[in-house]
Write a structure and sequence with these properties.
The protein is of the alpha/beta class. The chain is built from eleven helices and 15 strands. Helix 3 packs across helix 11 and helix 5 packs parallel to helix 6. The radius of gyration is 22 Å and the shape is globular.
């Protein structure tokens, strides 16, 4: 039996709760076949004792089912991730000194306006906590490797400055911003495999000098794969917000995203329904993408619906122009919606049992 045959067998094994296999997650340190004996060495980071056991059993089963293998030895090195604090904990997350709360903004499905929401939420938080007048104490980290859009929406461009070995975030609207988009050329396509994505995100997070922040929002790419797993293994999260649109095609995927956070012990702070309705000139609302999907998703995950964002051309235009409505037109309908959600989020972070 060749090494490639053993590798193909290992590729059939999915990390529990995820759609990616253990090889693409970078868990396989070595794999070889010596005189009919398969020897596989793995490294797993998890606090769940059942996961290494399950992976070991599946590796043994897959290898023994392959021609030429009579015996299997599986060695697993297990390390525990840093525990995520409960929402409202006063201690700063390990590895990010000075940062009070780290909140992931996630969606299972692309195209639901997650980055637009993250940008406006960050601006709304900055308005609430400082009125945009004092030093920025809200951070926004754009972890979308393949399609970073935060720089455009925040009206920022250029390269970040470097202090020692750390990148310095750019600032606008009272928000400190760091994005992979600052480090890539506009015409460069990112074609990276899973382990490269994981390593990039880990280094990216650790090499940014945020200073003192009340809240750091992390805009995740869609899905439940490498970026999400890397994040929860690298930085303790105070919780996660799920963004969805009302239609079933989006809410079903959002629910799977919520279940992923449950599996890795990250508290769900709530669900936000984007593009909820379109308001006609006479005040009548029409529900273009259906109605009630966000509420049903929140109920199925045992959390709450934090708010509904209307479908408005002004929101899109604000993003394209680099002038988020939560900062540029905070008293309008969309601005008030983002501000209301920001206030609920702060309440949940400061009073998690409330």
């Amino acid at each position: 039996m060749s090494f490639s045959s053993l590798q193909d067998a290992l590729k059939s094994i999915k990390y529990p709760g995820f759609s990616r296999d253990i090889i693409s997650f970078g868990l396989v340190r070595s794999a070889e076949v010596v005189e009919g004996r398969a020897i596989v060495k793995l490294a797993v980071t998890t606090a769940d004792a059942t996961i290494p056991k399950k992976i070991k059993e599946e590796v043994e089963h897959a290898a023994l089912a392959t021609d030429g293998v009579r015996d299997v030895i599986v060695e697993i090195a297990v390390t525990a991730p840093k525990a995520a604090p409960q929402p409202g904990a006063s201690a700063a997350p390990t590895g990010l000194p000075g940062v009070g709360h780290v909140v992931a903004i996630a969606s299972g499905k692309g195209g639901v306006g997650k980055s637009t929401f993250a940008v406006n939420l960050a601006c709304a938080l900055a308005q609430i906590l400082g009125g945009g007048r004092r030093e920025a104490r809200i951070g926004l980290l754009d972890c979308d490797i393949y399609g970073p859009s935060v720089p455009l929406m925040m009206g920022l461009s250029g390269r970040p400055e470097i202090e020692g070995e750390h990148l310095l975030p750019m600032e606008r609207f009272g928000v400190k911003v760091m994005s992979m988009g600052f480090l890539m050329d506009d015409d460069t396509a990112v074609v990276w495999r899973g382990p490269m994505v994981m390593k990039a995100i880990q280094q990216f997070i650790q090499n940014v000098k945020w200073g003192e922040l009340d809240v750091l929002l992390v805009d995740l790419p869609p899905g439940t794969g490498d970026a999400q797993l890397s994040l929860v293994q690298t930085i303790p999260l105070s919780g996660a917000l799920l963004v969805t649109t009302p239609q079933l095609a989006a809410t079903q995927v959002a629910r799977r995203g919520g279940l992923m956070f449950n599996k890795v012990n990250v508290p769900l702070l709530g669900v936000v329904e984007n593009m909820s309705y379109f308001e006609l000139p006479g005040g009548e609302r029409t529900y273009v993408f259906g109605q009630g999907g966000g509420e049903r998703t929140a109920q199925s995950l045992g959390t709450s619906l934090l708010g509904e964002i209307p479908l408005l051309g002004e929101i899109r235009k604000g993003g394209d122009d680099g002038e988020p409505l939560a900062a540029a037109a905070k008293d309008g309908a969309a601005g008030r919606a983002f501000t209301a959600i920001a206030r609920v989020l702060l309440e949940k972070l400061h009073h998690p049992q409330g």
